[in-house]
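Example 9 (inverse folding). The structure is encoded as follows.
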């Protein structure tokens, strides 16, 4: 079946399973589900094929040829797909086994071509599967592209439309590669456009490592094809619609236009109305909703053409309903397209309408950087919009807001909960770049600025007043070094495995079990093998990665390197002591924490924790959000379950200089 004919069918079949709702009587089940038992003949045939492809890959690696090395991921994706499916019982139907055999043959064909320094798939038109090596864990990740017939490598740059796929619990790498490399076909009205289908590291609504996957896949496509960076479209449906909302509010200035369909856009209301579950979060859990709740960032959509689609009988219209309310509070109108008499899917008429609207925006081209912006964030993880970057907040996880405009020779900024900013020269409107000097009116002050010739100009608050120059601090929260714990798994990390044993037997058993669980669940949920090194093998080079350390100073020799003042706690054989006043028995309590690594403060050290959402959240993508803040004390007398690693008796955030702030209620 060709992709354009399959488009609507796949939306209905695949995306109707966007969420699997948990009932009180339903046990938390395995995701991905357990696959079928394959017969010995198939297992042997797949094993032989893997052995052949593995030898071919090893032979190509030994060539150490730059051309071959640059394209090896396009071969390794086939090996990884079948290897994972065979090793972890992720063939879910008999057809998947057939697909696995075909993928091994495709991989061998690519390897043979690459051996002769040929790569015909790089100039292939239509659907093509490609791969890249992720900076997070060194894993090879697949993505799909649809290349139009009129694209030429030596021709003009093409626009690019991302399409985010829907939820698929059976979406192994085998199925992703074999079943269409993206779950949809090229949109016929989007002329001169390459389609990109990120895998998103499986089924996490393109959050955390899935979010990074999108950015890495996009960067890889921009290396391999001529892409117009001012012609990017943000599109998706169901779980993919949730991703389109998230990327619209967090990366608004990337897109020419956005088109989210169905999905979810926040947590509480969606779970109440669609998931039929009333959530009762702790104070820190509710605070952490600010990371991915798109309603909190509605002001950022001020300058983005956006078209939300829903079937008129689809309960998931809730996502656009609540975004419409949030946008209205900002004076923004949400453009909505409806599928008549349609549930969770696209009608042909609505698809045509959406495509025609996007084609109009495509013909006009991306709007230039605006003179007026309204930027909201709660974290420096998402800290920039066009010509404005936030470098420091007064208080993380409180609403930070900047309303700015440029008129004549004056930039006016009104700020809330902001301690440092930068103006980005390249992103300023063309009419302003020629000014030799300008006035910066920021809150109640006016600063006279000489010629703006540098790449950026920075300003910060000092003694209650704005002054020119970057904020200088030995240790401070900043972009990509702001927490919470889950942020450590959005860039390169290494698990530091203890070589010894703690004298606290309950803690030792728990810590090692949590480490093994994390390694297993990282593979299952984020589709990569975590890099693991013994505590005695950590090098200076390893300090360039986030270090995920399990154990205590007795069991983990790497922790023994730190002096008491290096990290904001004291742990001895009997007590865990926080800020010299909060004390917990070490025999049955554990500290989970993120903090800048004292040996390289550009990166994190994490204690006794992997990503913090657990099995219960796998059942519903809107609940795949951080469950622990910057630090937490775990009572180990309560065993871990599908929500928590034990009983969380105290937890909180560090301050803007990573100083102690006390527990969060």
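The amino acid assigned to each position is listed next.
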């Amino acid at each position: 079946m060709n992709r354009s004919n399959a488009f609507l069918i796949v939306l209905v079949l695949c995306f109707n399973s966007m969420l699997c709702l948990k009932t009180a009587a339903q046990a938390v089940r395995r995701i991905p589900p357990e696959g079928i038992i394959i017969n010995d003949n198939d297992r042997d045939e797949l094993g032989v094929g893997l052995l052949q492809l593995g030898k071919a890959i090893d032979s190509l690696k030994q060539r150490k040829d730059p051309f071959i090395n640059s394209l090896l991921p396009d071969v390794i994706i086939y090996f990884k797909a079948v290897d994972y499916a065979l090793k972890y019982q992720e063939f879910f139907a008999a057809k998947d086994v057939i697909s696995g055999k075909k993928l091994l043959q495709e991989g061998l064909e690519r390897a043979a071509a690459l051996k002769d320094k040929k790569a015909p798939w790089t100039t292939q038109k239509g659907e093509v599967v490609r791969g890249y090596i992720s900076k997070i864990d060194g894993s090879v990740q697949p993505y799909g592209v649809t290349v139009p017939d009129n694209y030429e490598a030596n021709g003009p740059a093409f626009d690019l439309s991302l399409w985010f796929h829907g939820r698929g619990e059976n979406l192994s790498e085998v199925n992703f590669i074999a079943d269409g490399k993206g779950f949809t076909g090229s949109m016929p009205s989007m002329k001169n456009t390459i389609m990109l289908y990120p895998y998103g590291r499986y089924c996490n609504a393109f959050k955390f490592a899935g979010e990074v996957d999108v950015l890495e896949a996009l960067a890889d496509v921009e290396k391999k094809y001529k892409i117009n960076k001012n012609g990017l479209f943000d599109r998706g449906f169901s779980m993919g619609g949730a991703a389109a909302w998230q990327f619209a509010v967090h990366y608004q200035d990337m897109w020419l236009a956005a088109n989210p369909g169905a999905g979810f856009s926040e947590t509480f209301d969606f779970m109440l109305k669609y998931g039929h579950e009333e959530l009762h979060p702790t104070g820190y859990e509710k605070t952490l909703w600010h990371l991915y709740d798109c309603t909190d960032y509605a002001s950022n959509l001020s300058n983005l053409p956006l078209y939300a689609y829903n079937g008129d009988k689809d309960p998931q219209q809730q996502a656009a309903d609540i975004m419409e309310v949030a946008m209205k509070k900002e004076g923004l109108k949400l453009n909505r397209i409806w599928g008549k008499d349609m549930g969770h899917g696209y009608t042909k008429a609505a698809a045509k309408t959406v495509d025609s609207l996007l084609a109009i925006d495509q013909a006009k081209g991306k709007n230039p950087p605006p003179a007026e912006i309204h930027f909201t964030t709660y974290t420096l993880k998402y800290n920039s919009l066009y010509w404005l970057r936030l470098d420091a907040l007064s208080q993380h996880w409180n609403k930070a807001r900047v309303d700015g405009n440029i008129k004549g020779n004056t930039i006016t900024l009104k700020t809330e909960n902001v301690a440092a900013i930068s103006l980005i020269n390249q992103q300023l409107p063309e009419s302003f770049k020629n000014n030799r000097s300008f006035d910066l009116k920021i809150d109640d002050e006016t600063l006279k600025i000489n010629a703006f010739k540098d790449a950026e100009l920075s300003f910060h608050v000092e003694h209650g007043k704005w002054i020119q120059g970057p904020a200088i601090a030995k240790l401070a929260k900043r972009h990509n070094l702001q927490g919470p714990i889950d942020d450590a798994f959005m860039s390169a990390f290494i698990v530091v495995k203890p070589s010894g044993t703690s004298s606290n037997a309950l803690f030792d058993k728990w810590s090692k079990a949590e480490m093994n669980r994390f390694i297993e669940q990282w593979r299952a949920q984020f589709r990569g093998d975590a890099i693991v090194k013994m505590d005695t093998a950590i090098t200076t080079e390893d300090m360039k990665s986030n270090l995920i350390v399990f154990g205590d100073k007795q069991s983990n020799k790497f922790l023994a390197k730190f002096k008491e003042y290096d990290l904001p706690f004291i742990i001895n054989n009997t007590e865990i002591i926080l800020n010299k006043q909060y004390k917990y028995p070490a025999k049955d309590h554990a500290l989970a924490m993120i903090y800048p690594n004292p040996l390289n403060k550009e990166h994190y050290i994490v204690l006794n924790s992997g990503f913090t959402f657990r099995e219960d959240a796998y059942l519903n993508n809107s609940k795949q959000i951080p469950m622990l803040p910057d630090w937490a004390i775990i009572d180990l007398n309560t065993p871990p379950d599908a929500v928590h690693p034990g009983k969380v008796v105290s937890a909180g955030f560090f301050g803007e200089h990573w100083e102690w702030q006390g527990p969060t209620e």
